[in-house]
Amino acid sequence: MSARRPEGANGWLSGILGALLMLLGVGLGAMTEQSAITSRMAFNRHGGEVLDLADAQGPQAGQHGYMVRVAGDIDVVEQPYDADFGQRINTPVLVRHVEMFQWREVRMGSDVHYEQDWVDRPVDAAGFARPAGHANPGAFPITGKQFDASLVKVGGFALSPPLLHELPGSDFITPSASKMPENLAASFSQNGKYLTTSANTSHPRLGDLRISWEVVPIQQVTVFARLDGDRLVPAADADDGKGFDVQLGDRRLVDVLPDVPEPPSMVAVRRVLAVLLAAFGALLLLWRRLPSDRALPVALGAGLLLTGAVAGVMWLGKDLQAAAFWFLAAVVGLAVAVWRLHGAMERR
């Protein structure tokens, strides 16, 4: 059994150093938790804790419900199809535009004149200042429409419709007239990137139609969203009111969420170091007051008690699970310290 050490001339120096080390440990723990809290609260504005899955090739177990960042080329698994015109395109979103050659009214100050042009909606000539001689055909026989691909992935993750519709960029494609059904092929002919009903494409007539298709190009994108099974969806509970983002190219998380600070590094190491510093400080205070076989566990318990209690208080009202974890750690530290102190008291 180890005997208690007698007080020496340097005992007060050990006491001061021990107190300083305990304060340093508690301070390091508080700074670490504050950084973690600041980062957590910032991420919560956008939906919660984020997993950076830029190099992943699909969802893994345990990732459900997390906000994630994924990057990669758009992969259209099931292409959209415009059955009316037989157009199937390798794009996540296909939009059919329909225009009619119509009269339109042009006002420049008090001057009013009329010209014929392609317009993507029916123009009601009844509202013209001079409707006589400027009547338009009325409703379109064919309307514009959007076609979404049934399955689009980025980095192995399927995109939900809200994310699909946020994919950036657009191009107009040249349609394939040979794929049109026979009934439409008799009415439409190809003119560059348009299918038109004009007999003379250089001189269209009133009521002629022209059809074009706009697509979202296949390109590299970065997606920030919540993982729901194997799909990326908006975070409905995000404080920013959006809960997702889609950007062109491979963008870092700090570029996608510029208002969120960099997550603290080496959090686990800093937490362990905080406990050890506080414990070593307690050991210096106890070393000359308790036997060595008692001082060490009591000091470790005291270090865990102090850092755990401070961290638990800091997490209150922000994350009850984190607060409960730290309070449990503090209780364990208290139990160890009391247990060994009680043993020391019994031996006296």
Automatic annotation (TrEMBL):
Q: Does the keyword Cell wall biogenesis/degradation apply?
A: no
Q: Which PANTHER family match?
A: PTHR13416, TRANSMEMBRANE PROTEIN 43
Q: Can you say what this protein is called?
A: Uncharacterized protein
Pfam families assigned to the protein according to its UniProt record, in alphabetical order: TMEM43
- Name the source organism: Dyella soli
Q: What is its main location?
A: membrane
Q: List locations, semicolon-separated.
A: Endomembrane system; Endoplasmic reticulum membrane
Q: List the InterPro entries hit by this protein, alphabetically.
A: TMEM43_fam
Which residue ranges run through the membrane?
A: 268-286, 298-317, 323-341
Q: Which UniProt keywords apply?
A: Endoplasmic reticulum, Membrane, Transmembrane, Transmembrane helix
The residues the entry assigns to the signal sequence are none
Which GO BP annotation is one of this protein's?
A: lipid metabolic process
Q: How does it sit in the membrane?
A: Multi-pass membrane protein
| UniProt keyword Transmembrane present | yes
Question: Record's GO cellular component, any one?
Answer: endomembrane system
Domain of life according to the entry: Bacteria
